[in-house]
UniProtKB/TrEMBL annotation:
Protein name according to UniProt: Fatty acid desaturase
Keywords: Membrane, Transmembrane, Transmembrane helix
Transmembrane segments: 58-88, 108-127, 157-179, 229-254
Organism field: Sphingomonas citri
InterPro entries: FA_desaturase_dom, Fatty_acid_desaturase
Domain Fatty acid desaturase: from-to ranges: 74-341
Length: 363
């Protein structure tokens, strides 16, 4: 869903030592090597997709059940952390749904919605048709990109606000599906606003989504109804005591934890240094981040291939399980002065520090 509007530094932005990304030309050797070295990696592996999804859901919901029922506070917290990490991994597969050819992994979108999208109130239509705009060469980093804000050029306070506001995501999603969805069915004007402003997993507060058409509209309507019924049922069961307030609060806390981790990952997915100009593919790559091995923690906070986010922008059609091998091949072939190596970073703390320092320089 859309977040709040953040204030730019305006004239002070010129003080920040940010590279002119829009002036970077494409490195044809890098683009050619990336394409040629990975042609045999483009086929998704359905068994792995399903195993990853089902495994994440089973572990996540089992841990959530333990957190709700166990008497020990320590064990409840530990189970809650496991639930957050497992469900976050499952949720992250929405990224794959927006890229894969669905015939290559039959039924996966429906399975993901049933196991993750509906229970967590993030049906796949909230990302499909939105994320692809982020990858459009003429849209990336511009005002028309739903997933971009020039965070490096904004006020320092925007970073903690950007992260903390995500903790309210479960409340916002409950309002979206338990209240706005049914009410908007009665009011065309409200429906227009709900579709345009509250039906996308975006961070650009100025982004307005177009109404779905044809098959997309039918699929959207089907999953929105199911998600709305689930949200209403959850509130009704809690109000009547069938679901305890403790269980409801833990469910919301786990949802907040998932949203917080995802927002931190989003914070370091790019350098956020573009001021709205169209960029070459190489410039987009250099504004994006890889966190390859030997770093270990990205397995948790950037799962399902998200640790290779810059590489993904070079090759958005590669399935997540192929990115590590693609990175190994490309890194081995390209010289050290290639732009490819300049998008690789050591880990989360350094990336957060780099972004925070960029905002501080322009105060």
């Amino acid at each position: 869903m859309n977040t709040m509007t953040f204030e730019s530094r305006g004239e002070n932005a010129a003080a920040a030592p940010v590279a002119n990304r829009a002036a970077i030309a494409d490195d044809k050797a890098m683009l050619r090597a990336a394409a040629e070295l990975t042609r045999d990696l483009v086929q998704p592996r359905p068994t792995l997709y399903w195993a990853d999804l089902v495994g994440s859901a089973v572990v996540g919901y089992a841990a959530l059940a333990v957190a709700v029922t166990v008497a020990s506070t320590g064990w409840a917290v530990l189970a809650g952390v496991v639930a957050v990490l497992a469900l976050y991994r499952g949720m992250s597969m929405i990224h794959e749904i927006s890229h894969i050819k669905h015939a290559a992994v039959p039924g996966f979108r429906a399975g993901w919605n049933a196991l993750i999208g509906v229970p967590m109130m993030i049906p796949s239509f909230m990302y499909e048709g939105v994320h692809n705009l982020h990858h459009a060469k003429t849209r990336y980093g511009t005002a028309e990109d739903p997933e971009y804000l020039p965070l490096a050029l904004m006020r320092p306070w925007t970073l903690p606000v950007f992260i903390l506001v995500s903790a309210l995501a479960p409340i916002g999603l409950l309002i979206r599906y338990a209240l706005l969805a049914p009410l908007s069915a009665l009011s065309p004007r409200l429906r227009e606003a709900v579709v345009a402003r509250y039906s996308a997993l975006s961070i650009n507060p100025h982004f307005r989504r177009r109404a779905p058409q044809g098959e997309e509209k039918a699929r959207w309507t089907r999953w929105e109804i199911v998600t709305s019924l689930w949200a209403i049922a959850l509130l009704a069961l809690t109000a009547t005591g069938a679901v305890s307030l403790k269980a409801f609060a833990i469910f919301l806390a786990v949802g907040s934890g998932v949203a917080l981790i995802n927002q931190v990952r989003t914070l370091v997915a790019h350098l956020w240094e573009n001021e709205g100009e169209p960029m070459s593919v190489t410039a987009q790559y250099l504004d994006t981040v890889n966190v390859p091995p030997p770093a270990l923690l990205p397995v948790l906070w950037a799962p399902v291939g998200l640790r290779y986010h810059a590489l993904h922008h070079l090759l958005p059609g590669l399935p997540y399980h192929a990115l590590a091998e693609a990175h190994r091949r490309i890194s081995k072939v390209l010289e050290q002065d290639s732009p490819y190596h300049k998008a690789n970073y050591a880990g989360l703390p350094g990336l957060v520090g780099k972004l925070a320092a960029a905002t501080m320089r322009g105060r």
